[in-house]
Design a protein that fits this description.
about 90 residues, two-stranded antiparallel sheet
Length: about 90
């Protein structure tokens, strides 16, 4: 958490200006970039979270597409093995 006493504030938030950046340490600047600074309406933390959710969705959609494409290959194979197993048990 940043110590807000030494920075210039706007409505309780640290203003993104050269004076404030000059007063920050490396870790304070990194924390500021990740939490307080808005880029296109999102903080970096929110953007990363949204990116991870997007990647999860893409992986899920890829798995669904793969299952649809492989279904015509896998189903007859499973059916053939089941029929072969039943024929062995009933000695047909």
């Amino acid at each position: 958490m940043l110590n807000k006493d030494k920075f210039i504030l706007d409505d309780g938030k640290i203003r993104f200006c050269r004076s404030n950046i000059a007063k920050m340490t490396v870790w304070e600047y990194c924390y500021f970039e990740l939490t307080d600074r808005n880029i296109l309406g999102y903080t970096l933390k929110e953007s990363l979270k949204n990116g991870v959710e997007g990647i999860k969705c893409l992986i899920f959609c890829f798995c669904e597409l793969l299952s649809i494409l492989l279904f015509p290959i896998v189903l007859p194979t499973v059916a053939y093995k089941a029929i072969k197993k039943e024929k062995k048990q009933h000695k047909i």
